[in-house]
Design a protein that fits this description.
Blueprint lengths: L21 H5 L20 E2 L13 E7 L11 E3 L2 E5 L5 E5 L5 E5 L12 E5 L2 E8 L2 E6 L14 E3 L20 E3 L2 E4 L14 E5 L5 E5 L17 H4 L1 E2 L7 E3 L4 E5 L3 E2 L16 E6 L5 E6 L15 E7 L2 E9 L5 E5 L9 E5 L13 E5 L20 H11 L17 E3 L13 E3 L4 E7 L3 E3 L1 E3 L6 H9 L1 H4 L16 H4 L2 H10 L12 H12 L16 E3 L3 E2 L14 E7 L4 E7 L4 H4 L15 E3 L3 E4 L7 E6 L5 E6 L9 E5 L2 E8 L12 E6 L3
Parallel strand pairs: 1-35
Antiparallel strand pairs: 2-41, 3-4, 4-5, 5-6, 7-8, 8-9, 9-10, 11-12, 12-13, 13-14, 15-18, 16-17, 17-19, 19-20, 21-22, 22-23, 24-25, 26-29, 27-28, 28-33, 29-32, 30-31, 33-34, 35-36, 36-37, 37-38, 39-40, 40-41
Length: about 700
């Protein structure tokens, strides 16, 4: 493929590139040829020292092999590669091994379990004992890496049930193992995805014995009596509250034996009258002793979160230069568009953090935190405050519609509590800023590369009147957070339910409620009576309006994610709608920033380089390249010059590459592979492909 020429480097900032010391170059990891860990290494750098593919020859890349899973559905999987074997996951959560040189299938494991899209797998070995550890639904499986067969001595017949060991009725716990765990010695350390509303399980971080599957330690993210942080919750919260879970993955400092765990928000996400307080360890970056699970340090980025502003990706470990010294650091990206940088040994911030005052909530029962922390550097990589001059000018009609809606919003910037019946701007939106793909960092330079969404959402609270039927009440408190009070959703990511009865059968809907699909979590914690009431609500039935939900009903619920779009469905804010940034973490200054992605139909009309919503992260290589797919709509896979942001190569994928690529070397030939399956834009087709690229032989 020929590179596209003339890409405008919007937002290019003339920042001097810091000189790289010998000590900093020596901090780079020892060269390896594999991609053996999700994120490339336990440090989550997304970095490879391979350089056969480089700036001078990347334009010659061609397809080396393609693997078609034969299954419909989106993927988010970054595969791993060990000793010439690639391990991946299909849309139906089947696990496979391929010859990494030609894509030929070596084995496939069919679990007969259907869970959420899974982002990756974990590899462990000791001598000839080689294992693939992978989460499917609420199970963690251990498979023989040679054959793909379950290792019967692990847990119960080759798997452990992650609903257990939480101190609650395990059959009522809704969770999914969607991000891979991380291996430390003979431990597999795991987090989990959970529902956004109660009932939800506690977000305990747990370590299991890799060989036996036995629980070795737990860290309570909702502290029990006598534990640090217990006084930041109501006294009985540990018995009923949920969330504060690690859904995004972790990073590991193998030398220090520290695992770094970013956590999500507490349930329910947007109304917290039953969790008054700062809610440690929700929305926190926690450094734990990997051997014992003991807390070493923590940082809470959002106190008493009311906006679902949780940490969306694993942190990245790197070494930065500060005042002539080399400091082992940890960088954490956020949905709000900021990067926090800490000394990884003690949690001291490497750029000052300011605690700023924000408005209190006027909703009865709610108590917003008085202050929230924001770093003074680097500057945010996503816009922070919506103004009238930022509205779309795509067409005069689009601008007029955006302006009319803008004037109805409550629009006061970050950390403004939601009001009842009044839409409040959330910018960047609920999907970031940064998302689960995570950043890449170059250990040779200290530069961080992060892709981001830059579109506007809004949200509001609504009062539960007590006049709804049972099914409607359950819907408002469990489903409206995504599908909205009016059941219109936020297409294309979140579908409308208005025509559900015409499109799907009651049995299909019940299966999705119980087991989840796509970005929708399983609601296995709902009693059978509540599920039945939901089905009656959607399809009609004998709801009398006299029954009540089996779950406690809060006074208020979130009325749903609302994307700020123009009449044609495009973002109602001016571009860029998605970006890729390079930030020098030695100085906190930007090296470059460019739009990422576009809408093909707009590009055909001359509206190019708009950027677009994107999911899945970048990788960076010693060959001077940043590889990234991610963009939802143009389905392209790109390579940029890591120093300048110049586009050097791009190719069209059959479906969007909404995952993080991987690169590896077998027999002296370097490959770059990406899952190209789509799935994030529900109005576009999806299918499970893996495609590898290499230079011609």
């Amino acid at each position: 493929m020929s590179p596209r020429v003339g890409l405008s480097l919007l937002f290019l900032l003339a920042v001097p590139f810091a000189a790289v010391s010998c000590a900093q170059r020596e901090s780079a990891p020892v060269e390896h040829r594999d991609w053996p860990v999700y994120g490339g290494s336990p440090a989550q750098t997304h970095y490879s020292p391979l350089q056969q593919i480089n700036r001078k020859n990347v334009q010659n890349l061609q397809v080396a092999w393609t693997y078609d899973t034969g299954e419909v559905g989106g993927l988010q999987t970054s595969p791993i590669v060990v000793d010439g074997v690639l391990y991946g996951i299909t849309p139906n959560n089947e696990i496979f091994a391929l010859d990494a040189t030609n894509g030929k299938e070596l084995w496939k494991f069919i679990s007969n379990v259907r869970g959420q899209p899974n982002r990756g797998l974990t590899y462990w070995s000791a001598g000839n004992d080689r294992r693939i550890l992978v989460g499917i639904d609420f199970y963690e499986f251990a498979l023989d890496a040679h054959s793909g067969k379950p290792i019967e001595s692990f847990g119960e017949n080759g798997r452990i049930d992650l609903r257990k060991d939480l101190g609650r009725d395990f059959q009522r716990q809704s969770l999914n193992a969607t991000s891979p765990g991380i291996v430390y010695k003979d431990l597999i350390i795991l987090g989990m995805r959970e529902p956004e509303a109660l009932p939800a399980p506690p977000g305990d971080i747990r370590a299991y014995d890799v060989k036996s599957g036995k629980l070795r330690w737990s860290f309570h993210t909702i502290p029990h009596p006598g534990e640090y942080g217990y006084d930041t919750w109501p006294k009985d919260a540990w018995t009923y509250s949920g969330g504060a879970n690690n859904w995004a993955g972790m990073a590991l400092d193998e030398k220090r034996g520290i695992v770094y765990v970013p956590t999500g928000s507490a349930a329910s996400d947007f109304y917290g009258s039953d969790r008054v307080g700062d809610d440690l360890f929700a929305n926190s970056l926690i450094a734990l002793n990997a051997e014992t699970g003991q807390r070493i340090w923590h940082f809470q980025s959002v106190r008493h979160d009311l906006w679902d502003r949780d940490f969306p990706a694993p942190p990245a470990l790197l070494t930065v230069q500060r005042d002539g010294k080399m400091i082992d650091a940890i960088a954490q990206t956020t949905k709000s568009g900021y990067v926090f940088l800490f000394d990884r040994s003690n949690g001291q911030p490497l750029f000052p953090i300011e605690y700023r005052h924000y408005p209190q909530s006027d909703v009865p029962g709610e108590h917003a935190a008085e202050t929230q922390p924001l770093p003074t550097k680097p500057a945010p990589f996503a816009r922070q405050r919506l103004t009238e001059d930022m509205l779309t000018n795509r067409t005069p009609e689009a601008h007029r519609a955006a302006l009319a809606q803008f004037r109805k919003f409550r629009n006061e910037g970050q950390f403004v509590p939601f009001r009842v019946g009044k839409q409040t701007v959330v910018f960047p939106g609920f999907d970031g800023g940064a998302e689960w793909g995570g950043p890449a960092v170059d250990p040779e330079t200290g530069v961080l590369y992060v892709n981001a969404n830059d579109v506007v959402f809004s949200g509001a609270l609504a009062k539960n009147t007590g006049h709804e039927s049972n099914g409607r009440t359950i819907y408002l408190n469990q489903c409206a957070v995504c599908h909205r009070d009016d059941e219109k959703g936020s297409p294309p990511e979140i579908p409308s339910l208005e025509t559900l009865i015409q499109r799907r059968s009651p049995a299909y809907a019940e299966n999705i409620i119980r087991h989840g699909k796509g970005r929708m979590p399983a609601f296995s914690g709902l009693p059978d009576s509540d599920v039945a009431a939901l089905i009656e609500h959607f399809y009609g039935g004998a709801e009398s309006g006299q029954t009540t939900s089996s779950q406690p009903v809060p006074k208020y619920h979130f009325s749903g994610y609302v994307k700020f779009v123009d009449p044609d469905g495009y973002p109602a804010v001016a571009p860029p709608w998605g970006t890729l940034s390079a930030i020098n973490l030695n100085t906190g200054e930007y090296l470059w920033k460019i739009p990422l992605g576009e809408y093909p139909e707009l590009a055909a009309k001359g509206m190019k380089n708009t950027g677009a919503e994107n999911y899945g992260g970048p990788i960076v290589t010693a060959g001077g390249l940043v590889f990234i797919g991610a963009s939802n709509f143009d389905k392209k896979f790109r390579a940029f010059d890591k120093d300048t942001g110049k586009l050097l190569w791009e190719t069209q994928l059959p479906y969007a590459g909404n995952s993080t690529p991987a690169t590896y070397d077998v027999d002296g030939r370097q490959y770059v592979v990406i899952d190209a399956s789509g799935g994030k834009a529900l109005n576009l087709p999806s299918r499970g492909f893996y495609i590898a690229f290499a230079l011609p032989k």
